[in-house]
Amino acid sequence: MSVFKWIGATVGWSLGGPLGAILGLALGSLGDAFSKEENLFNLGEGDKKKRRPSPNYSYRNQTQPGDFEVSLLVLASVVIKADGKQDQRELDLVRMQFVKLYGKERANNAFKVFKEISKQQISTRQVCLQIQQRMEHASRLQLVHFLFDIAKADGEVHESEESQIHTIAGYLNISYRDYESIKAMFYNSSNSAYKILEITPEASVDEIKKAYRRMAKKYHPDKVEHLGEAHKKGAEAKFKEVLKAYEQLQKERGF
């Protein structure tokens, strides 16, 4: 399988702007970025037409799987360098997470691109601005969730990693409550269940029930069904955390 086939779906808006420049340099470094059969505007298997976003393109349309995965690769490279260094152990952990998401063959190709991306100096703000403008809210929430998942691959989310993800979430226009909800899924604390449901410990039983229904709707896997099965499974993990938090409060509060 060519490295260009790893995305496995049409790439659209991520071929322009900062993301396109980063991806182009990474693929060029691999030595076959402009082969006769394939090029940067023909990464996906689902659309064989060359396509480049209009320079004036700024409205948000439905994110394609390839757009999401390119965004994840770039932002994951930012997170693992949050402490100012990057070692082979961290790279191995990221690769393991890709295997969990995409399967071995697809992950191997994604990881080739990721290693080239991780060598670059990336403007986090510019990249996030492109993503924020063109990726719908549910997909951006899923992106932050996956970044925490990658950060915790070694067993814990380090302070520098959390700080970097917090910065990314801000640039992605993720609200404080949404960010704290996702963050709480990766920490064990006395009030994690409340944070996941975006309520306080003073919430009434009725407020807890309403919060659960609201969060279940917000994090429902169908929200990211268009991203493909791998990402839908990731959303299911987030959805289960909401259910787990609700069941914990049911037990603690006796309702």
UniProtKB/TrEMBL annotation:
What InterPro entries has UniProt attached to this entry? DjlA_DnaK_co-chaperone (IPR050817), DjlA_N (IPR007791), DnaJ_domain (IPR001623), J_dom_sf (IPR036869), TerB-like (IPR029024)
Q: Which Pfam families match?
A: DnaJ, TerB
Give the protein name, as stated in the record: Molecular chaperone DjlA
Q: In what residue span(s) does the J domain sit? A: 192-254
Organism for this UniProt entry: Aurantibacter aestuarii
